[in-house]
Amino acid sequence: MQRILSSQLSAHAGETVHVAGWIHRRRLLKSVAFLILRDAAGLTQIVVSEESVRAQLEALPEETAIAVTGTVTVQPSAPGGVEITAPVLEPLTDPAEPVPFDLYRPDLRASLPTVLDHAPVALRHPKLAAVHRIGAAAVGGFRAALEAMSFVEIHTPKIVGTATESGANVFKLDYFGRPAYLAQSPQLYKQIMVGVFERVYEVGPVFRAEPSDTARHLASYTSLDAEMGFIEDHRDVIAACHATVAGMLAGIQAKAGPALELLDVTMPALTEKPVVVHFADVLEMISKATGEDVTAEPDLAPAHERWIGEWALREHGSDFVFVEGYPTAHRAFYTHPDPARPGYSRAIDLIFRGLELVSGGQRLHRHADYVRTLTERGETDLSAYAGYLDAMRYGMPPHGGFAFGLERFLARLLDVPNIRQVTLFPRDLHRLTP
Ligand code: AMO
């Protein structure tokens, strides 16, 4: 008999069906026993009245994988309005070992380190699984939004010869006797590919040897990247990024409704037009509001990001705010300066509920500008950039792009304080397993 999922049961009332999943919970009452079965689609209540089946169930701990054949019976108090009666149980493997926490409780009662240590089983908790369903839907929305704007998906190397974001937090490795690095970002490759497809995007892991232990940094995270050619300036990048955020939120709503409900998520407010504020104006506003002169700051500190996040919500009803014009000296070498404001650039960040979610902007596109900038920044040997500089040599149009950190997006969306709570198998200073 073909297996059906819990979500399909109500269409089979009165029929004999075959289901399979994990024993989520057993409730062994005096006169009757209940087996709550969990599958990918949800929970099914199975009523065990027969003595021999009950004895069998008593020997099968929670989390054992099991198949059940029985009759679908209408039961308004059961999940989905139906239950399975007169079941025949067929364990699909050995009885599960005792689980370190009760997965059937509405919330996992365990500390974050314990949850992470036991991630292979903790992730089965419906609320933890829901986080990653939302993540999958967000990535689906990211892809759909960019495909609709004619971006082409690419897959670039993760073992690379040059650091792209900064030399400090790059993982070095031995590559057949030569030094190499784990990619910090697909930055250089996505720019090169603008010369091929005009518009490209990538979803993939990137690596940062973050030396400090913070609630918002991982040593490996999922970067959602896009890059586009023939732009006027960074405002075109902002428009594409804003449309992509809208696509991600729409993707989540379309594909992850039950997960949003389970986690009681308040969907963020996204205004029709992006809210954009200049870096210098952010510091001016903060100085005015707090009485502390921060106008000479070279970057936004986390407290400044929180401030501007609150401002955007208060003044514009938006959970998102783009900051443009970061000082050129504090951004990566590929950053395009703002010709109208010396010292400032066409770099952007998108702040989501007070946390930097996206970086991006317009890039340099002239070969000579790259040679000059890299040299000014102390690069003595440009041979490591040869392929990249070639792309600039052969007619690269004005271009720009952006990158989201998926885990940061989920952390703010779900309002959790630590990024590790929304990361499948976090990698950080202290954690390499599981
Ligand atoms: P940046 O280094 O700012 O820019 O990274 C882009 C976004 O990635 C996320 N992020 C992180 N998430 C978790 N752990 C980390 N250690 C971490 N570091 C960054 C943030 C951040 O906004 N090449 C540029 C992007 C571009 O210009 O297109 C870049 O990588 O959400």
Automatic annotation (TrEMBL):
InterPro entries reported for this sequence: Aa-tRNA-synt_II (IPR004364), aa-tRNA-synth_II (IPR006195), aa-tRNA-synth_II/BPL/LPL (IPR045864), Asp-tRNA_synthase_2 (IPR004523), Asp/Asn-tRNA-synth_IIb (IPR002312), NA-bd_OB-fold (IPR012340), NA-bd_OB_tRNA (IPR004365)
Positions bound to L-aspartate: 165, 208, 359, 363
Sites where the protein binds ATP: 208-210, 216-218, 356, 405-408
GO cellular component, one term: aminoacyl-tRNA synthetase multienzyme complex
Pfam families noted in UniProt: tRNA-synt_2 (PF00152), tRNA_anti-codon (PF01336)
Keywords carried by this UniProt record: Aminoacyl-tRNA synthetase, ATP-binding, Cytoplasm, Ligase, Nucleotide-binding, Protein biosynthesis
Molecular function via GO: aspartate-tRNA ligase activity; aspartate-tRNA(Asn) ligase activity; ATP binding; RNA binding
Compartments it resides in: Cytoplasm
Chain residue ranges for the region called Aspartate: 187-190
PROSITE patterns in UniProt: AA_TRNA_LIGASE_II (PS50862)
GO terms under biological process: aspartyl-tRNA aminoacylation
Site features described as Important for tRNA non-discrimination, chain residue numbers: 79
Catalysed transformations (reactions): tRNA(Asx) + L-aspartate + ATP = L-aspartyl-tRNA(Asx) + AMP + diphosphate
Positions of the Aminoacyl-transfer RNA synthetases class-II family profile domain: 142-434
Annotated EC: 6.1.1.23
SUPFAM superfamilies assigned to the protein according to its UniProt record, in alphabetical order: Class II aaRS and biotin synthetases (SSF55681), Nucleic acid-binding proteins (SSF50249)
Function of the molecule: Aspartyl-tRNA synthetase with relaxed tRNA specificity since it is able to aspartylate not only its cognate tRNA(Asp) but also tRNA(Asn). Reaction proceeds in two steps: L-aspartate is first activated by ATP to form Asp-AMP and then transferred to the acceptor end of tRNA(Asp/Asn).
Family: Belongs to the class-II aminoacyl-tRNA synthetase family. Type 2 subfamily.
PANTHER family from the UniProt entry: ASPARTATE--TRNA LIGASE, CYTOPLASMIC, ASPARTYL-TRNA SYNTHETASE
Subunit structure and binding partners: Homodimer.
Name of the protein this chain belongs to: Aspartate--tRNA(Asp/Asn) ligase
Organism: Acrocarpospora macrocephala
